[in-house]
Amino acid sequence: MRLNQTVFFFLFWVTIAVVVGTLAGKSKPSDLYEQKIEQRLKQLNKPAVKSIHSPDGDIINCVRIYDQPAFAHPLLKNHIIQMRPKSYSIRDKTGGNKADIIYQLWRTKGECPENTIPIRKITRDDLLRSDSIETYGRKSPPSPTISPTINNLQHDQREVHEHACVYVDYGEFHGSKSRISIWKPEVLMTSEFSLAQTWVVNGDWDTGLNSLESGWQILKSLYGDNNPRLFAYWTSDSYQKMGCYNLDCPGFVQVSRDIALGAVLISISTYNGDQYDFQLTIEKEQETGLWWLKFETHLIGYWPSIIVPKLANSARKIAWGGEIVHYPIGQGTHTLTQMGSGHFAEEGFKKAAYFNNIQYIDTSNHPITPFPQNLEAIVSRPECYNLQVGFSRRWGTYIFYGGPGRNPQCL
């Protein structure tokens, strides 16, 4: 009996030693995950010449212009940066930068040197808030409400996208121009968002929608707070794998050292108080095939049409308005996430959010004001968020839009 016990304990400790030795030679799952995070951060954050600490907590890295993420795109390996449009028709409309005006919070603490661009630093916490570290910076595929095939809507059961917007369709367009009021709507959950933007679209959902988008958004899962931020987005495959926000993947080529995509906007409208807006332009240069993004008079950069091939010639649809995404909390329960100012369109100026001086750009690169009656509207849930279209001599064609989300009529 005593011999059997001795043999048992001997074998037990040998087994323990083998297991411990084996584990010692391997990384723990948590260690492997940390390594993946570090590798992803290294991939996303390019070496900085200078770092600026913004009052909102962001770090803005000043990165050499030829070190920016765009050049990791296989189609842009040998791309030569174009610092400004070659076309006089686009260049003359820039009007020169208003260097004395600061639009973003980080600029109160410094500026990036010549030949660098500002890029918001992505942190470990940013990655951990994402659905996965591999897909950080990409949208979840929405139902194709803004696609040209709007009569064949699909519905994502996991998340719901709702819109209050207007659009022109079935044309040949070289861009979009409008002024967008800035607000800070309440967003209920980290995974939800609220935004105001313009869409420049071609293609269809089934064969790969191509879309260029820009405006302001509140998206805590991406940025870590509920501040309105300037953003840009692109996709060439209906929001599947190709495309991303800002500079979070190769694609968009930035030239400005004054404006940071994804950074907090400094001036926010208040209910019945001061109103703040900005002019946003997306315009295609025919000679080069570049789609330029302009904030006020600042040329931020461009999307080469080679990465959005269905926009190589022109866009088919231009849209302007608001969007929210939410995750239904049980049967029949709508989110409290707000759109625009959080107030309905009929409340009007100083109370509802707006787009004014709405224009599309034709194939001769002339801005054209569409008549209100020629705009189509998408209002997903008018009892939750709505829209009004109008025209005035001062504002041209405009919309008021938005709403509070859940209320006695929106459940």
From TrEMBL:
Domain of life: Eukaryota
Keywords assigned by UniProt, alphabetized: Signal
The Neprosin PEP catalytic domain, residue ranges: 149-411
Span of the signal peptide: 1-24
A Pfam family reported for this protein in Swiss-Prot or TrEMBL: Neprosin
InterPro entries associated with the record: Glutamic_endopeptidase (IPR053168), Neprosin (IPR004314), Neprosin_propep (IPR025521)
Listed PANTHER family: LIGASE, PUTATIVE (DUF239)-RELATED (PTHR31589:SF221), PROTEIN, PUTATIVE (DUF239)-RELATED-RELATED (PTHR31589)
Name assigned to this protein: Protein neprosin
Native organism: Cardamine amara subsp. amara
